[in-house]
Amino acid sequence: MTSKPVSWGIIAIIIISFLIRIYRLNNLSLFGDEIDVGYQAFSLSQTGRDYKGNFLPFYLQSLAESRAPLLIYTVVPFVSLFGLNQVGVRLAPVLFGVLSIYLIYKLVLSMSQSKPLSLASAAVLSLMPWHFHYSRAAFEVTLLISLILAGTYFFYLFINNTKNKFLYLSILFFGLSFYTYNTANIFVPLLVIFLILTNLKTIIHRLKPSLIFTALILTLVLTFPLVKEIFYGQAAARFSSLSIINNPKVIDQIVVKRTDFSATNPNIEAIFHHKPGKYLTEISKNYIKSFSLDFLFLTGDFLNVRHSIPNFGQIFIIFLPFLLFGLFKMSPKKPLDKLMLFWLIISPIPSSLTLGGGTHATRLFLMVVPLAYFIAFGIIKIPVAKSRLVYSFMIICLSLQIISFAHEYFVHYPKNSFENWNYGYDQIFKNIPSISNHLYISNAKYNSLLPYLFYQKYSPQNFIADKVVDNGPQFNLNSQTTFINQWSSIDHLEDVKAKAKSHDIFVLFQEKDVPGDMDFSQQPLAGFTTIKTIYNPNHTILAQIIQKL
Fold it and tell me: Among the four residues 94, 140, 335, 338, which has the most C-beta atoms within 10 Å?
């Protein structure tokens, strides 16, 4: 038995993909969900419990909602090694992003036997702004993509191999995908049904009672903890709040139409304006928007600044003609083309069912796999006679776009999007001195509790024991720390003066607690000393830390 030669092409792609994703990983501050992931991982590493006190939970309880567990559990070893910081929280998503690049290479190679096509698919995926951006932050969808690709890859290995272990591995990875991000709950069942139906003869021929029994047991074990959460738990509540179905805004639009001054008769209006018709219209709009050139190639998810880079689409525009050419040249009769076409068709469905889902890059992230494949397919199918000229033009344009994107991403984007990435909380809470009396932290701008726990590396054991209730005008973390949800009066500084005792420390946010551009480092508040003034990248003041004399 001879071993297959090493593909230096994929090794080079993997190394470059890793390096560009790890480069300046602290370029952006950790946003709220990342901070939550990090502190949950820290709590698990210290106590074996989430920070609400639940022992090794299937779904972790956070301050506002429950969280799918898998990303958090994978972050645990990295937080343990590198600490509560950008590297500790983001290294796992980086590795899963790189893994997905390798897995698309393996899937395409195994189904097409074409090394150029498999290498091109991996290279395109690695260079997509969409994939690059999401694999540099703690988004669950990078893990989701890796698991779905792994499940699909091992399924086809089972189909083309006599070893049953590949089926078990496929079930394992598909099952684990449900514990990452809610889009899996709709997408994965549809994909699995497709895989079964398109390979039904082979499956029936291979099935034996022992294989069926083992596969069913494995499926039940993996999915049983999900049932309660999906239908009755926080996951159900989360989907209900985002879903178009029964959303008050959608229903209100129907009522407005039925009661409009130009309406003729309520019974007649009910024929034209009803919930099924409105739901179908909104879902269809979302679905069509997902394929818009504007979203994919020009502006991206402009409604959510954290999801894409201004002035760039989710994909480089140079890839557009290759995508169209790849879709034109593909053949639905070929198993790989059929798979990728079906994947592309169903991937927007979960997002289409939600409000604003038409251009929501996170909920649409599943699209990156088939889009990368068809772009690569279009590149490979360029006629030989024209290939040199076309490839030269593509490389020049792609290089220019990559350079432009890198400049925007590393230079301008952090400064222009800082509010969306919870900028400055590390500086705030790392500059609080040892408390000699009492610490008051304002929640006037954002909820500061979780960033405080994270950047102070607050003991999870103590937090669990504290049983903090985050409500009311104010609440206590411990005997020395109080969070202010609501001041007594409009003039917050007067409240500070009235509340302050000697050596008390206050964290106050500009424009919320401190009016205008008042800078206590230049004009100290009477009776207080300024410990630290934290500035935004645009040189405005974010927060000020002051202490009563």
Answer: 140
Q: Give 17's Cβ-side CA count (13 Å radius).
A: 29
Strand positions, DSSP E, 51-121: 60-61, 66-67
Per-residue tokens: 399: 């290089």
Q: Is residue 318 part of a domain?
A: no
Count other Cβ atoms within 10 Å, centred on residue 457.
13
Burial status of residue 37 (CB atoms within 10 A of its CB: 0-12, 13-18, 19 or more): buried
Q: What is the pLDDT of residues 231-245, one digit of tens each?
A: 666 555 555 566 777
Q: Are the beta carbons of 66 and 60 closer than 8 angstroms?
A: yes
Of residues 118 and 164, the one with the higher pLDDT is 118
d(CA 120, CA 319): 12
Measured CA angle at 354 (ends 351, 360), to 5 deg: 50
User: Which position has the higher pLDDT, 67 or 137?
Assistant: 137
Specify the DSSP element, H or E, that contains 545: strand 541-548
Q: What is the dihedral of CA 441, 445, 448, 454, to 10 degrees?
A: -130
Q: Count of CB atoms within 10 A of residue 101's CB? A: 28
How far is it, in rounded angstroms, from Cα 400 to Cα 402? 6
- At residue 143, does pLDDT exceed 90? yes
pLDDT of residue 2 exceeding 50, the answer is: no
Q: What is the pLDDT of residue 508?
A: 95
Structure tokens at 347: 């991937």
Q: What is the mean pLDDT of residues 382-398?
A: 90
Residue closest to 373 by CA, chosen among 334, 344, 401 = 344
Among 273, 294, 319, identify where a domain stops: 273
Asked if the structure places residue 309 within a domain, the reply is no
Look at residues 254, 273, 292 and tell me which one is the last residue of a structural domain. Answer: 273
pLDDT-based confidence at residue 1 (cuts at 50, 70, 90) = very low
Decide if 449 contacts 481 (C-beta within 8 A). no
Q: For CA atoms 514, 516, 518, 519, give the dihedral sign.
A: positive
Q: Which domain holds residue 449?
A: 424-548
Q: Could you tell me if residue 440 is inside a domain?
A: yes
Measured from the Cβ of residue 246, the count of other Cβ atoms closer than 10 Å reads 10
- 250 falls within a domain: yes
- Nearest CA to 158 out of 174, 172, 169, 145 is that of 169
DSSP string, 472-511: SSEEEEETTEEEESS-SSS-HHHHHHHH--TT-EEEEEBT
Q: Is 444 helix (H, G, I), strand (E, B) or coil?
A: coil
Question: What count of other Cβ atoms lies within 10 Å of the Cβ of residue 337?
Answer: 21
Per-residue DSSP letters for 25-56? Answer: TTSS---HHHHHHHHHHHHHHHHSB-TTS-BS
pLDDT in tens, 364-389: 999 999 999 999 999 999 998 788 89
> What's the maximum distance between 2 C-alpha atoms anywhere in the chain?
84
Q: In total, how many domains does the chain have?
A: 2
Burial (CB count within 10 angstroms: exposed 0-12, middle 13-18, buried 19+), residue 466: middle
